[in-house]
Amino acid sequence: MALPALASAQEADAYVAASSDPDHPIFQTGRRVMVAERLHDGERVDLDGCLDEEIWTRAEPAKDFVMQDPLLGGAPTEPTEVRIALDRDNLYLGVTAYDSEPDRLLGNTMKRDEFLSADDRFMWTIDTFLDQQTGYFFEMNPSGLMADAVMGPGGGNNREWDGIWDARVSRSEIGWTIEIVIPFRTLNFDPDAPAWGINFQRTVRRKSEESLWTGFERNQGLRRMSNAGLLVGIRDVSQGMGIDVRPYVAAKVAEAPGRAPAADAEGTGDIGVDLYYNLTPNLRANLTINTDFAETEVDQRQVNLTRFPLLFPEKRGFFLEGGTFFDFYSPPDVQPFFSRRIGLDSRGIPQTIDGGLKLTGQAGRQDIGALYVRTGASDDVAGEDFAALRFRRHFFTQSYVGGIYTLRRGRGDGLGSFQTAGLDFRITTSTFLGSKNADIGGMILATPNSETEGDDLAYGFRVSYPNDLWNGAFHFTEVQPNHDPGVGFLRRRSFRSYHPSLSWSPRPDNHPIIRQFSFGGALALYTDLDNRALTREFDLTLIQIDGHAGDNVSFSATPTYERLDDDFEIYPGVVIPVGEAFDFTRYRIEIGTANRRVVALQPSYTWGSFFSGTRREMVLGVGLRPTPGVTVNLSAERNEIALPEGEFETRLFRLVADTQLNPRVYLVNNLQYDSLSDQVGWQARFRWIVRPGNDLYFVYNHNWFEEAGVDGFRTLDRRAATKINYTHRF
Questions:
Q1: 227 falls within a domain
Q2: Which of 18-32, 60-74, 502-516, 608-622 has the lowest mean pLDDT?
Q3: Cβ(194)–Cβ(19) under 8 Å?
Q4: 295 inside domain
Q5: Domain that holds residue 25
Q6: Which of 41, 88, 191, 350 is least buried, going by the fewest C-beta atoms within 10 A?
Q7: Which of 91, 100, 149, 94 minimizes the C-alpha distance to 120?
Q8: What residues contact residue 413 under an 8 Å CB cut-off, 6+ apart?
Q9: Is residue 120 in a domain?
Q10: Would the pTM count as exceeding 0.85?
């Protein structure tokens, strides 16, 4: 399908001539090209969302977007134009999102980094190294919400990254317009790259319409930078001295009357600092002293009815910044580096972080990640030293080979050390059989620790064909009994696993209601090292229907086999004995209504056999968006389990209420209860972004517990914290 021309051949040649290397082979690939227009001396952009500066009339727009959904290759019903300008210090974007019905624009959410599943939106990605594997993601809606992420190789997406940039939105009778400023100090980039990769996407939510500037095929998309266009004209720009200083001041008060032993109210104060220095435009060093995470969001509670630990995501800023440089090509069951292990001792007791050093970025075609963190000692918990080194060498267009090393060492007498070393590779192409995606990768890890000898390997490979109509994969993993990644995550050990999967997702032509069907299955087979089956779970999607309006319904079945190699206490006092094998099947029906509605529902019901008995699971999710700036999400989960060994039920409730005064001031209340702990937790988190990089937080946490023989709940502990961050850029 031919892509609409951006400009005449002569104009395109002129754009390429604006590159620092117009003879580079990248310009022979047929990609769309746009140029960044330089501001004149003394010219400036007043950030108000109105594109009334003269620079926006000089800059040539990227336009003629192409529809991806619902009509692949069609012209969008609502046009979009994007202009880019720059001066020595900043990159500017001016966006005009035309809309024939501006009173029907959807912009319910204003909270920083919130997912925009219910709103109109404009998104863009930038590949500042032109490596076609990594980049930055940005997103906005008509109410001024700002979201961003760092994209790593292989589809990794670190949405917790908070870059320093700013934007304003204006609505009018033509639709909505955006002015955006991104300081070059915020971005790591290759100053010698002939161009940057760039792409844009627009969502018109009421029509469920998606359109892109380029890469509109359903096997491509916004985040696949190998299909992005090219931005030229990035010359003579500055990151200043490349130094950011971010001091903080925090005050806290906490008490724990319900814990043993009880702790009276005690106030503390903390100061600390993060220092950032760009060694080169694409290699950044970070020093943190007396690190504090008082502003971190609380984890979402989960009910675990399996034999294996749950994986909770990292939410601490120091570890999230540059985190994609430590990503390793391994299955979720086996991760050599998982930063949440830092700051917790072997018993799960929190440790203070005295300081740390980090180096992340690129040098030529190499990705580099290096980390050292020192935790403090407290009471009977010894301090520890953590280190991680990561290296990736890029080759071809979207492929790499790499290595990793991690170390965890206690500073007390008799405390051992834990080491992990490994290699991985990934070969990816978006031109398999013409325009299809294909991927193959593998890894090997060893943990030669002082407490074990031999049998410490983990290795595996994966082959995948991730495409819109057919999506298939197979991956194999073996983990030996002594494999123990001290700074990683391991769900289980001493196993082999086989994971074949295949799905077929046809799209009916011109159906008035249905956009896509999906059918498929995914098998997870785990055996011991003698090839005797331990777990066999076949997740079979019998049918899934997605509608044009955003609603969906699905029906699935999951035949399962489990052989226990140890007693399994599934619930306090309910033990399924070792030695038995179980065959059981569960069925699930799930309905989801479009999030753009004022009230969105997502109920599901699962039933069937379960180990030696039966299990019913009922889940209800409700989303309320009564007015822009107010969102309420309620979820309730109930499990009813009947086994010969005992009957029990579990309950989990969560209420999250967001109140957003504007995109820079918001309050989030998070209330949770689960029947396994019999505890209620509440977190109130207020954030005021005074200006990008300068924040004021107030966070209050309160936990209650239900005491046997006592009516109602008693306070377990509570804590209040205030924190101020300030950023000064040199």
A1: yes
A2: 18-32
A3: yes
A4: no
A5: 9-232
A6: 41
A7: 100
A8: none
A9: yes
A10: yes
